[in-house]
Specification:
mainly alpha; Serine Threonine Protein Phosphatase 5, Tetratricopeptide repeat
Length: about 120
C-alpha cells in the first residue's frame, strides 16, 4: 500500500467511526496496520474501533500500546479507563481516569472521574 493509500484508509476508518460503524472501520484500517502498526495514532484509532464494537480486551491492548509509545497521552488514558470501566474493573479504571484528569483538567475528564467514583461508591454500599 502506498503512503497516500495508507493515509486515505486511515481517514476513511476515522470517518466510519464518526458514523458509528466500527466493524467497517476495522476492515478499512487492516491494511494500515500492515504498514504502520507502530504508530500511536493507528493504535488509538484501532482501540476506539474495538471499543465501539465492544471488543474490550482488544481495545485495552491497543490503548496500552499507545501508552507504551507515549505515557503522557491523556486521551489514551481516558479511553483505557472507560474500557476498563465497561469490563467492570472499576478501581483500575479510576486510576487511569484520575491520571487523565490530572494531565488534562477538562470538564469532560472531571465528569468521567466523578462518574466512576459514584459507581465505586454505590458498589461498596
Amino acid at each position: 500500500m502506498t503512503t497516500e493509500g495508507t493515509v486515505e484508509a486511515f481517514r476513511r476508518a476515522e470517518e466510519l467511526l464518526t458514523q458509528r460503524r466500527p466493524l467497517e472501520a476495522l476492515r478499512v484500517i487492516q491494511p494500515v496496520l500492515d504498514v504502520d502498526a507502530d504508530k500511536p495514532s493507528v493504535q488509538l484509532l484501532l482501540g476506539r474501533a474495538y471499543f465501539f464494537s465492544a471488543q474490550l480486551l482488544r481495545a485495552e491492548r491497543a490503548f496500552l500500546r499507545v501508552l507504551e509509545f507515549d505515557p503522557s497521552d491523556h486521551y489514551a488514558r481516558l479511553v483505557l479507563g472507560r474500557t476498563l470501566q465497561r469490563q467492570g474493573r472499576l478501581n483500575e479504571a479510576r486510576a487511569q481516569i484520575r491520571l487523565a484528569a490530572m494531565m488534562c483538567p477538562s470538564p469532560a475528564y472531571q465528569e468521567a472521574l466523578g462518574e466512576i467514583n459514584a459507581h465505586i461508591a454505590t458498589r461498596d454500599m
